[in-house]
Amino acid sequence: MPADAPAPTPAPPPAGFTHLRPDGSVNMVDVGAKPATERVAVAGAAVLLRPETLRAIQANTVAKGNVFETARIAGLQAAKRTAELIPLCHPLRLTHVAIDFAVLGPGRIGIRATVRAHDRTGVEMEALTAAAVAGLTIYDMCKAVDREMTLTDLCLLEKSGGKSGAFRRAESAGGVAPAVAEPDPPSCPGARAT
Questions:
Q1: Which of 6, 13, 109, 162 is 20 to 30 A from residue 34's alpha carbon, by CA?
Q2: How confident is the model at residue 170 (pLDDT cuts 50, 70, 90)?
């Protein structure tokens, strides 16, 4: 391209991508004019691990300590720090965070993160971050005995509040954490009990 030629005009961003400006650059959405409403999001994930690793967690014999309580604290911290980790997330005033675990089979742990806030934007990213970090913490706590663990099926299960209204994952055959959820909860693909 000759030096005096004008720069090509970037294509406009796809409709519905609120974090993109017309020139394609990123932008933190201005939520200042939106009303604060009650926001709730529930995310799920699963950790696949050896049955003997799960037994050690349940017996609280893992050398690093109580796996579920450490992962719960990590998930709580992660929800509160989401805006520091995900560049375009807004800092929110969370009113509640809960991290729950359920054994879904001999080699599967379900993780369920519930986050609430009375704010101007949703808490989906906080719930997803909490579930992911809780799962990563389970891996960290147990990696000395099981490096083949897999964190899988991270997904939004449901959300409510805000302009876009309610969302609930369509599948409902087992759930990510049925022992800690309502009867017949939605599930992420593959996160069913084995």
A1: 13
A2: confident
